[in-house]
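Its record is retained below.
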Amino acid sequence: MRLGVAMPAALAALAGGVFAWYFHTAGGAPNAFGWVLVAALLVVGRCPRFSIWLLIGAWVFTGVQEEWGSRLPAGLSGEDLAVEATVLAAQPVGNATRLLLSVDQCQSSSTSLAQRPSCSALTKVRITAYSDVRFRPGEQWQMTLRLRPPSGFANPDTFNYEQWLWREGIHATGYLRQEPAPVRLSSADPSLRQLALDFLARQPLDDRTKRWLAALTLGDSEQLTQDDWSLLNATGTTHLVVISGLHVGLVASFVLLLAKSVARFATPTNWRMRTWPWWLAALACVSYATLAGMAPPAMRAMVMTLIGLWVLSGRHAPGAWQGWWLALALVLIVDPLALWRPGMWLSFVAVAWLIIIWQGRRRPQGIKGWCWALVRSQLLLAPLMAAAVLVAFGRVAPAAPLINLVAVPWVSSVMVPTALLGWLLSPIPMVGETVWWLFEQALSVFHLLLTLVVQHWPLWEPDRSLAYPLALALLLLSLCWGLPAVLPSLRLAATALIVALPWWSLPSSIPPNALRVSVHDVGQGQLIELRSAHYRLLYDTGPRFRSGFMPLEALWSPGQLFDQVLVSHADNDHAGGISALLADHRVKQWMAPAGEALPISGIDCQRGQTWQRDGVSYRILWPPAGDNDLSANDRSCVLEVSAGEQRLLITGDVSTEVERRFLREVEPPVSVLVAGHHGSGTSSGIQFVRSIAPEHVIFSAGRSNAFQHPVDSVVRRFRQQGSCLWNTAHDGALRFWLKAAQPIQVETTRPLPGRRNQC
């Protein structure tokens, strides 16, 4: 590839990816714009000079389209599939094992194969194995899986699990069937990476040291616990742990420095003209990325480091910007899905900004010069990266600029060198262990520093109305201090704006006498957030899965404050998230029915309780006060919320018999009803439905749940009443305002084609 086409090649790759996304979202049939674009590409393709651009765009387009075409067909969702697969990764999760499989063969286990789609296009799946069988990477197994197309919970401003699965090339998720039992077809071929992980597991080191060594040196970041990731996210230091340009660059730089020293000793007269040190550094770069598993971050870092070595060598080398465009083109050609990975854009934006702030400046000299260069780069880079993270993830680590000033040199100069040196010296008895002991002490200092930072400056998740102004202000700060010839007064003004903006008193996004209701998508369970201007209540906490994961963990960053949490009853699908609330958040008051075995203490939820907050009225309609012999479902707290003439009714899991017992206290019509027991036939009786005549009905249920909630009879019952029906399984999280004299308008997170958002 000629260097003159580096930028056009990158733009062609970007265009191919964007067009593939547009083609897919348009339903596979491009409109007039699509045909115009196709015609333009054909015209350009007639010119041999531009044919390489068309080829690159077509390559990326085809790669993205193939990923969509490899997804599990919807017709096979929930079906048993017999597969032969190779284990790519096996990670213990609670009492289960999470497996990443490369599918070699796949066919349906059903005896009726007529009119069933094929699963032969599947290449990679992610499953959970609830068994005592031990799986090792590299083994080939014959097993029966129950899969579903990639999907995730659809909640606004949260991690998009479905998109993550897609960009990681995972085409289905599910679990391993116990019967028939899985059969090992072949043992794992010994790989250098797996041998290294096994060797590390046998070392007499602390568990935390082992998992951080695996992440820092071998790219096995899945060994890090949720607590590790929370600590890194809260301090803005995640980039220091995953195999990135920092680690690959350090390896290449160390080998280059060592090789140049040897060349200077061997050929003192013309050592600067030797090329083999650069080739040796490039070989070390590729070898290290391969050892780390050649995951997308490692591959991206390898490409950028190789081109960086070429640029720095000065031998027929491209300029800095040509190298940047060339790296972008190569990354997209090798990995078309990188276009949708936030990490890629953060990396390239960071490198582009470093080029801008250092272009035209002299190379630092001496230790003092390099230390100042590191401080200057970090200070100028931090605001831009904070703005990018704020836009991408809606959060910012306030102490990230300061902590990175210490963490970057500590990790790069102490932790990574001792970790890698430990591997080099591991064949020598006691020596490698001693070096890793030094790494363990350095890790303890690093971990203590991050913990102290989190305690004093926790992760900040600003209001959405403030996020974009703050990101714009951070960008302005970076430009004012990073670009040359900017007036000092503008730099001081930008700094003052950043300091003042977080304290700027924005009007509350929730007006008085109004309630913002969010029925979150938590699968087969229930979690409802009710929020007014100065009050925040949770009704139920969502489920806890067999693997230990709680959907509540993915909804908010740690440190949230809830004025009240009302747990309808102790069933796992309603109370499973209590432990996450206790561990990560603050709750002023708990409410639950008397007699429920819950790990909380608070006031009993009982009939007749009323309170008001911000002009909104709350009333408990059930259960009765005192001891009772009701079932757990029939003890559910029933909550009625009123804002003017608008009323919300949440009935938990009570049965039709209980519904009749509090029916007279409900004044019809009800504006919004959260259907009892997720739409089960044991709730929402005919008399109840006809009496309250709900305008909107929400089913909080999981997609393709085993109970078939909501059941057909209940759905028909509400439709005959003229209610507008919503389901978190299909619509995602649902939001609406409860305001006096204002009709209900339900907002969906996952709008369906042709679905009306008003009834």
In short: The chain has a mean pLDDT of 84. The first helix runs from residue 6 to 25. Residues 228 and 385 are 21 Å apart (CA to CA). The longest strand covers residues 80-93.
